[in-house]
Amino acid sequence: MIFVNYSCFMDKTKPRIPKVKDPADGLAAVVALRRLADRLEDATVERAMREGWSWPQVAEALGVTRQAVHKKHAKRLIAVGVELRRRSD
Amino acid sequence: MIRLTKEARDVVERAGKEARTIASGSIEAEHILLALAGREGTAAQHILASAGLAHEALLAAIEQEFEQSLASVGVLVGEFDLNAQADSSKGRLGLAASARLVLERALAVAKRRCDNRLEPIHLLLGVLDAKAGTVPRMFALAEVDVADLAQRAEAALPATG
To answer: How far is Cα B7 from Cα A74, in angstroms, rounded to an integer?
Structure first.
């Protein structure tokens, strides 16, 4: 029987998760994280569509409905000139 | 009855464009501030510029607050690709709670003084009076003397009447 000590393979340095002490900082971080998620979504959906992803694929990857992702991004992507795939493609 | 002047309406409209340019889904207090700094020929713009808060400086301060707030929970913005094309579609953005509060406070200033016109300077006072959120935090980070700005804005209010 072989015993493996998994802790040998783990990174010994503990991840340093900063503790937010001031509620003002914590609340501002919540706002900023939401905004980061929105900006990341805009940038990444745009990139995916430029690379030929379809709406259903993007929707499934984001875990939302196709209608939701279309409603949120279609107008902007058309305005910035991204060629969108038709459903039949 | 208090009416928004042409300049004040311009500022609100411009705030929508500012929000869109920095990829925000709604108009926040900081977008009204950016719009105030961008509307030439107003006392509000003059006061902001003389405090070193021209449009570009404010944009930088907003970004700094964003990065700082994320850094406090260990997130580094530099590690993300956030380069989406700015939204140029035409639809109107709604006012977020922070922007509504700015308008409410601006109106309260006008009411208190019996002004029947709401000018950009009232809006500036509404922005400067924000107690929490992005605006006071970005001012703190940029070491802006908000009390001094507010005092100068008060002094620039139109003659009562």
So the answer is: 33
- Which string of DSSP letters, residue by residue, matches B85-112? PPP---PPPPBPHHHHHHHHHHHHHHHH
Element (H, E) at B68: helix B55-71
Average pLDDT over chain B, rounded to whole?
93
pTM above 0.90, yes or no: no
Q: What is the pLDDT of residues B33-79, one digit of tens each?
A: 999 999 999 999 999 999 999 999 999 999 999 999 999 999 999 88
Mutate to test the interface with A, among B27, B28, B31, B72 (most CBs of A within 10 A): B72
Contact in structure between B139 and B64 (CB atoms under 8 Å): no
Reference A58, options A71, A79, A37, A44; nearest CA is A44
